[in-house]
Each structure stands twice: as C-alpha cells, then as structure tokens.
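Dear Dr. V.,

Thank you for agreeing to look over these. As mentioned in my earlier message, I'm a first-year student in the group and I'm still getting used to reading structure tokens, so any feedback on how I've presented them would be very welcome. I ran two proteins. I've put each sequence directly above its structure. The first is here:
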Amino acid sequence: MGATPGSVRSFRAMRRMRKIILVLSLVLSSRLAAGSPPLGDGPPSWAYPVNSPGLTEPADDGRPLQVPDSAARFTLTQIRDLNFCPDWHPGDHPAMPEIVARGRKPAVLACGSCHRADGSGGPENARLAGLPAAYIVQQLADFKSGARKTSVPGRNPDWMVAIANAITSEEIEAAAAYFSSLKPRSAVRVVEAVNAPKVRVVDWHLAVASTPGTEPLGGRIIEVPENLEQFERRDGRSRLIAYVPSGSIQRGRELAASGGNRTVTCSICHGPDLKGLGPIPGIAGRSPSYVIRQLYDFRAGARAGAWSALMKPAVEKLSMDDMISLAAYVASLSS
C-alpha cells in the first residue's frame, strides 16, 4: 500500500524538525555548563499520583447523568467505557473521527475517552488540542519505540505504549489532524498559597480529600478539579485549580525569560508567547502537574525520542524548585 498524502507530509515535517533540533540542541548545549543539582529522593508523588490497588468505584445505578450547560445524558457505564468518548458539548468541536470517538477494540482505546472530545485533557494526561499534527505523530512513534516512558512505571502512560503498538498509521493521521485543528483553552486557575487542601488520589490525579482540611503546601503543586463530579464525567469544560508556592509565578517568569544561567529562554523554541512555534508545541496554559512530569522525565531520561535533544540541555541544571516555578508560570498564562 502506498503512502497517504498525510503520512508523506508528516514524514517531511518530522525530517525538517530533526534538522532544526540538531542545530538548536548544539546551540543550547554550548550555552550551559555541565553540573546538575540533585532532584531529591525521586519523582514527586504529588506530580505522579498512583492509584491505590484497593481503589473502588461506585456501582452504576443506570441513571442518566448530566453536566452543566449540556442536553446530553450518559450513564456511568458509558462514561467509564474507554472505547467511548462522552460528547457533552458537540458544538465545541468538529465531528470526531472514529478513532477519537470509539477507538478500535480490543487494543486501541478511544483517544477522546481520556483526552476529552475537545482535546482538553487533564492533570493526568496531555492536552492535545492545538498540538502540531507532526508532533502528535512523533510522540506515538516514541511511545511505540519505547523512547518515551514515565519515571513511575504503572501509571497511565503505559497505556499509550500499548495503544501505539496497536494503532495504524491511518488512525494516527486521523487523530493528529483532528486534535491539531482544535483551539486550546486555559482550564487551570493558578493560586499562590501557603496552605492547600488535603488531597486523595482518584483515577491517576489528585482530588480534595473526603474529609475537608488544609495542610502546608511547602515545595509542591497541588492541582485538583474545581468540580470533581463534572471532571470525572469527562466534561471538557470542567476546570481545575492549582495551588503553587508563594512567589513561584514571578520566579518562573524570570527564569523562562532569562534562563538564569540554569536553563535557556523558553521562547527560543516555544515561541515569544509560549504558544508554540511551527511543529514545537505550546506550553502556555498547560496543567502544571503535567509540565512537572515532562521536565522531570526529560531530565531523568525517561522521556527520550527524536525531539528530546532540544529539552536535554534545558532541563539538566534545573532544581525541583526551578521546575515548580516554571510550571506555575506557564500554567498561569492564557493558551
């Protein structure tokens, strides 16, 4: 079977990008001296929540459920079906291709079941809306090759490895074209604080604890849904709140702009407004929990692949406090 026009375009885009990366990585590496600060005792648990083996879900009573400002109704069984994408707001996006809406049983889950119909994602995964199509294609190639992993095995990125090994190139092209056509939106309200709510782990992300209370935030970012029920129903319009250390947004702004002799100016690759540059993804308005995991994974070597050479010199001298400040800053920006 011959190559499709879409696959040819993606291949050419990736080939051009690899040339750009080679040049930029050499430039970036030359700007920074060797020497990496310690990152603590391992991946921070608040950024890598892991489901408890004993985590149970409420039984489905068959009742049709709803979310604000939607006429749609879905049962709990439908919402939990990872081969089904609940489409609460069809007017928010174009018609979903089959691979996004339903996937392909048994091995390929519906892309929209986790990343939402509008590509908004959540703290537990990536926001795909507006990502360059060539970038999405490359990430699936990296998952398939084993180059892109996670610093905490057993988390949901392991699903992406399985999907990447089962999905076809035509399905990848369809999903990439769809998500890249969507307009990203900012869904996180960033609040600088000394204290944060006590939390629990729910489906690979944090949520406010069942028993209300607060505790010192310290050197953490605590990101939780504002309305857990709405978020768990996979409504793309649901919003989150991220508690970040006092002063971290300004520290991140300064670090992103100057590099502070520890990294490079973020706008060199991600654009002057950090909303992306060509095939390089935007980072403005992204989940700070997700950003922390990517920075940590790049530095730890868990996330590699064809385009990771750009990030290696940018992260190797960052401390955890630096990562927190950068994640807080970029999350505070509009998409």
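The second protein is here, in the same arrangement:
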Amino acid sequence: MYIPTQKPQEREELYELLVSQIEHVLMDEDDAIANYANVSAVIMDIVEGLNWVGFYLYKNDELVLGPFQGKLACTRIKVGSGVCGTAFANLSLQNIPDVHKFEGHIACDSASNSELVIPIVVNGQGVGVLDIDSFHFNRFDGLEEKTFKAITSLIEKKLSK
C-alpha cells in the first residue's frame, strides 16, 4: 500500500501547484500533442510513486497511444477493454487499487499494480483518456481523483476552443 512522504497539507499544496503549473503550460500552446506531452512530463516529474503517465487518444474506433512518460506501452486498446477502454466506454473515472483483480486488465508493464484513468470529453464526445499507473497497490485516493479531474478539465477546456 502506498504511504505518501508528504503531510496531508503538503500534498494538497503540491497538487494545487501541479494544477497551476499545468494551467500555465497549456495557456499559450494550442497544439494538442505538445500539450499532452508536457502534461505527462509535469505529472511524472511532480507526483511520486508513479511508473507511467500518458494519454490514449480515440481514433478509428479504438484508443491509440499518445504522448507518455514511462516504459514501453500498449499501442492500441479496444474501447471497453482493460481499465482505459472501460473508462472511455463509460466516460467514467476508473480508480483501480489492484489491477491484477480487474477482469480484462491489459498488462503493458508488469510493474503496474494500481491505475487511475480519467476520460477526456469535449462537447459531449470522448476524445481520449489520461492514464496514470503506479507500482504501489492502492496508490490513488480522493485527492488524486480530484486533482487529475481538474487537470483533464483544463485539457478539455483547451481542446474545446
């Protein structure tokens, strides 16, 4: 189980800073791929206990690997398959404390033990997902859910322009 090294107030402040940094990164850049790349880099750099952060983008009826930080990843995921495909199909956040117990989990990196996936929705349509993996079991709590929802909201706002 994951135990943060920061005190609760320090974690909240760190995550507020993370959202602020990402807002700043997105401010002057309109290229979606550049923004996805920088967002994944900032998250990987600031958030502890992660082994993979990236995006899967909806193209031709499947999710296709986008910019990421981490080891080699699955290139294509069918909608409805695995944690990412489920999050996208249902347009709902998926917080999986133990991916090995998730029926149909796609193991791109055997070191991943928990996963948080947030769909990205623009004008009512899914355009992709933010996928965050950790080698810790039960890594993601309500603070991470809130923080990464805020980050995907910033991305959605940018994409809707």
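From my reading of the second output: The first strand starts at residue 52 and ends at 59. The mean pLDDT is 95. Does that match how you would interpret it?

Kind regards,
E.
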